[in-house]
Amino acid sequence: MFKKISNRTYLLEASKLGGMFLFVFLSIISWVINPKVDKDVKDVLSSNFIHFVVGYFILTLLFSLLNFQNKQNAKSKKAIALLIIPSLYILAYFWAILTDYLDSIFHSESFSFNSNHFVTGFFYLFLIIIFTGLYYLVNHWVNLKKQKELTLQATNLANEAQLQMLRYQINPHFLFNALNTIRSMVEEDKTIARDMITELSNFFRYSLSQNGTTDTLENEINAIKNYLEIQKIRFEEKLQIIYDIDENLYQLKIPFFIIIPLVENAIKFGLESSKMPLNIKISAKANSHLEISVHNTGSLVEDSKSIDGTKTGIENTKKRLSLYFPDNHTFKLYEQDSWVIAQIIIKDFRNLIAE
After folding, report:
1. Comparing 76-90, 146-160, 259-273, which segment has the lowest mean pLDDT?
2. What's the burial of 350, exposed, middle or buried (CB within 10 Å: 0-12/13-18/19+)?
3. What distance in Å separates the CA atoms of residue 350 and residue 352, rounded to the nearest whole number?
4. Residues 196 and 304 both lie in one domain
5. Residue 174 reports pLDDT greater than 50
6. Is 141 in the same domain as 179?
7. pTM of the shown model
8. DSSP H or E stretch at residue 245
9. For residues 334-348, average pLDDT
10. Which residues is 263 bridged to in the sheet?
11. Integer Cα distance of 188 and 194 in angstroms
12. Which of 25, 37, 62, 271 is surrounded by the most beta carbons within 10 Å?
């Protein structure tokens, strides 16, 4: 159960409890050093217990208010920030009144509003400002830690993607099939053989040249074309390729090797489920959002996610999208009108333009 509590919630609760324990402890120490004649130990302990309960309640309201502000967009945050300072004093004034009221009830004394509540309110305002600063300090620390974790995950997944590309470089099936096709073409058509060697070397050059985590959409599409040209030479009329790419999007920066696993998936299972020829369509377009999709004729193959390699590629793509575009993307793999579609949608993509 405790594992479900976030670090932020745990630290904020600890700060409230710790702060009020410290406040009560200092109050009791102050009375021990300079005891008041009209108060005995029971009165002091009961008053401090009331201070603790009321203080914890007020701080809970304070953190709820700050949480509400923290969840708003930038424009709303500025508007709410203007109300924060008066809101803090209102909480402080309420703290002073509620403490005095409960204390008077506990000790069977009369209660009335007076100017002392305004003065005491400034003392509690000082405490509230301290806890407000503590709230933002905890949030900053937790967000910084989370960002470091996400960066580490992104690096690990990028390394996994690099290993996935290396799989093509050493994959005996892919390399054997490509070289075998080239060998047969050398005698039949030397021009096609040379073209295939060029496509193969260009594809490997792309996978070897990556030293970062992103690349332009243009480079990714070119690598896909290299890969598909090799497959098209192998399968000849059994494979038809359609490109529907908006060239205005070519300079967008995307995680490298994010589309190629979807293309591999489309060919692998399209050949199993589609009538020949297998049609593959690569699409990239944008209006209010960026949509990149890989279509293939056929149907979803049962238990395809359990097959080694395919599961790794698809899951890696989904995880990397979550890290690069948190709360800003969707990924779907579905069947529609005799087409299987793997679709990536990035909602806010204007900041992806390559520098």
Report:
1. 76-90
2. exposed
3. 5
4. yes
5. yes
6. no
7. 0.53
8. strand 239-245
9. 90
10. none
11. 12
12. 62
The pLDDT-based confidence of 343 (bands split at 50, 70, 90) is very high
> Which H helix or E strand runs over 270?
helix 260-273
DSSP of 320-341: HHHHHSTTSEEEEEEEETTEEE
Q: For residue 173, name the pLDDT band (cuts at 50, 70, 90).
A: low
Instruction: Specify whether 104 is located in the same domain as 193.
Output: no
pLDDT band at 274 (very low <50, low <70, confident <90, very high): confident
Helix 172-188 × helix 217-235 angle, to 10°: 60
* 74 has a pLDDT exceeding 70: no
Residue 3: count of CB within 10 angstroms of its CB: 4
Confidence of residue 6 (pLDDT cuts 50, 70, 90): low
How does DSSP classify residue 273?
Answer: H
The 8-class DSSP code of residue 252 comes to: B
DSSP letter, residue 304: G
Beta bridge partners of 214: 255
Q: Is the model's pLDDT at 353 over the cut of 70?
A: no
Q: Does 286 lie in the same domain as 223?
A: yes
Number of domains in the chain: 2
What is the Cα 168 distance to its own chain's centre?
29
Closest CA to 284 of 344, 341, 333: 344
User: 4: Cβ–Cβ under 8 A, 6 or more apart, which residues?
Assistant: none
164 inside domain: no
pLDDT tens sequence across 103-126: 788 777 777 777 777 778 788 788
Which residues form the domain of 322? Answer: 171-352
Q: Could you give the CA distance from residue 254 to residue 267 in angstroms, rounded to a whole number?
A: 22
Which residue reads 């509690």 in tokens? 124
Question: Does residue 131 sit in the same domain as residue 213?
Answer: no
In a shared domain, residues 226 and 135: no
Query: From CA 130, how far away is CA 124, in angstroms rounded?
Result: 10
